[in-house]
Write a structure and sequence with these properties.
Length: about 200
């Protein structure tokens, strides 16, 4: 099974590219977020992609779907666990960064999810039902890029402990409050400031 490809671009099309690697040309389908990141690349340039290999009895012809990072691929694999979202539909739906989709799921934001290509209200509801509470990794990793010198556990965990253990807030709701607050206020650097901002934005 193919999990990673590095080679030179032979051809670029609307939704896929042809990569020459070890004298073999691989046609790779690309979600919009990946296409956007490669729009400045020209034929002959080197690219490297993490690959999701899709082949079933109903889809006997192998399809390679490419991602810039292993994290994008992992999010995609979570997405296709949702009922009625197969690999092709999931690839088309990735029109914004994965952390934006993760935040929309955790915030129960149906309107935001319905902005994704091919995602209607019913499918958006299924995404929330299937994935809520399982996407913290993708939200936290984005915050870590904003605040690379700060250990996230040292900032977030004390606040979660207070919200859950002392104030009786449900763990999932506590995580949502904290992640939403940090994404809106990325300059927060201390647990005390984070706790204050959580309640300023969403009082208990």
């Amino acid at each position: 099974m193919i999990g990673y490809i590095e080679g030179n671009i032979l051809q670029k099309n609307d939704d896929r590219i042809l990569i020459l690697a070890n004298q073999i040309g691989y046609e790779v389908l690309l979600p919009t977020i990946v296409l956007e990141s490669l729009k400045e690349r020209e034929v002959g340039d080197t690219v490297s992609l993490f690959i999701y290999f899709h082949q079933t009895e109903k889809q006997p012809k192998p399809v390679l779907i490419g991602f810039n990072t292993d994290e994008e691929k992992e999010f995609f694999q979570r997405l296709i666990t949702v009922e009625d979202i197969g690999p092709m539909k999931a690839a088309k739906a990735l029109t914004v960064p994965v952390h934006d989709i993760a935040c929309a799921v955790e915030a129960n934001d149906l309107d935001k999810l319905q902005e994704l290509k091919g995602i209607g209200k019913r499918t958006a509801q299924k995404m929330i039902a299937s994935l809520a509470g399982k996407l913290d990794k993708f939200i936290i990793s984005e915050m870590a890029t904003v605040r690379p010198k700060l250990k996230q556990d040292e900032l977030i965990q004390p606040v979660l402990d207070i919200l859950v253990e002392q104030l009786g807030i449900k763990p999932l709701d506590a995580k949502r409050r904290v992640t939403e607050t940090l994404l809106l206020n990325p300059s927060i650097l201390t647990p005390e400031a984070l706790l204050d901002e959580v309640f300023r934005a969403r009082p208990k």
